[in-house]
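Before relying on records like the one below, remember that each one covers exactly one chain. Contacts with other chains, cofactors or solvent are not represented anywhere in the record.
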Amino acid sequence: MIELKVQAIETYLRRVYGDDARLLAAGDIGSLDAQGMKGFGYGKPLLVHFETGGEVREAVFSVMKGDKYGHQFYWDRAAILMFQYETSARMARHVHPLGLGYVDGSDALIPMKDPKEFFIVNEKLQGHDYFLDLERIRAHGLLDRDLETAREFARWLAGVHAEKLDDPPLYSRRIRNLLGASECILGLVDEAFPRDYAFFGGDRFRALEKRLIDWRWKLKAYAHRLSAVHGDFHPWNVLVTDDGDFSVLDRSRGEWGEPGGDLASMAVNYLLWSLYDHEKLAGPFRELYTAYFGEYLERTGDTEVLEVLAPFCVFRGLVIASPEWYPDHPDPVRRRLFNFVSNVLEDEVFDWEHVNRYLE
C-alpha cells in the first residue's frame, strides 16, 4: 500500500525545482481542501499547488491502478507512464508532462529526469555457457556428469514450479502472451521468417495459428497450474561450472506462468542438437532428454503438464527453426523442426517418450 504524506510531496518538489520550492495546498481534483493524502497511488489524481522561483504553479500527481488487463505488476504500469511522459508533449492540445518518477520502498517520490534508456547491473557468475557442453557432447560423447546435470536441471525446475499462485486472469494473460506477444509465437511468425518462406509458407503458418486458437481455449481450464517460472530456460541462459554446479540468467516473460514453458524450452534444444547427426532424437541427446524429462515427471508427479505442453513446444520450435536466429541449419534439420511444430499440436497429450513421431 502506498501512503504519502505532505512532506513527501514537498521533498519531491524541492528535488525537481530547487530548495525554494514550497507546497501550498493539495487535494482532490476540483478541490484544494488540505488532506493527508493517505491512499494516494490507487488511481486517484492529486491536485497540488506549489510555489517555485516566486511563481505559483499547479500540477496533478497520479499513478495507475493495477488491474487484470495486463497491468498486474508495477513494471507494466511503468511502461505506460514512460510512454505518456515521452510522447504526450508531441501531440497538439495534449496535456504536457511535468515529471516522471517512482515511489520507493519508503514511500518517497523519486524523480527521473529526461529518461532515454534503462540499464541493469548484475553480479558476475562463474561458469561457462551450457551450450558449450552440448557442443562437446556432440563431438566427443557424454561424460558421467552430463546426465546428472540434466537431472539437476529438472530437480531445480521442480523446486521452482512448486510455488503456486491462485490468479486465473494472470494465467490467461500468460497464455494470451504465448500466442500473441511480439516476442512469442505471432511475433516470430511475422518477423523471424521471410515472406513466402520455402520451408513453411503462408498457408501453413495460417493453419498453425488457427490450430493454436483451439489450444488457447483448451488451456483456459488449466488456470490452477499457475506457478513460479523462469520463462526462458535454454542452453544460452545457463552457466555450468566444471564441478557440475549451475546458475541461470535472464529470467523473462514474468514471474508466474505455465511450468510447461520451462520444461519444453530445454527439452526442445536437446532435440535440436540430436538432429544435426541423426534424423531423430537419438544417441547422447536422447539420453539427456530422457534423463531430464523423466526426472522432472518423477519429482513433480505432474503428468498434467503433458496435456498443456504442445503450444510451448511450438513456440520453442519456431525459435530454433528461424533462419534469422539460426541461419546455419542444414535443410533436413529445419524441415524436421517444422514437422515437429505442425504435428505436436495434433495430440491432446504430448507423447514425450515417442517424440520422434512428431518429426515425420
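The mean pLDDT is 93.
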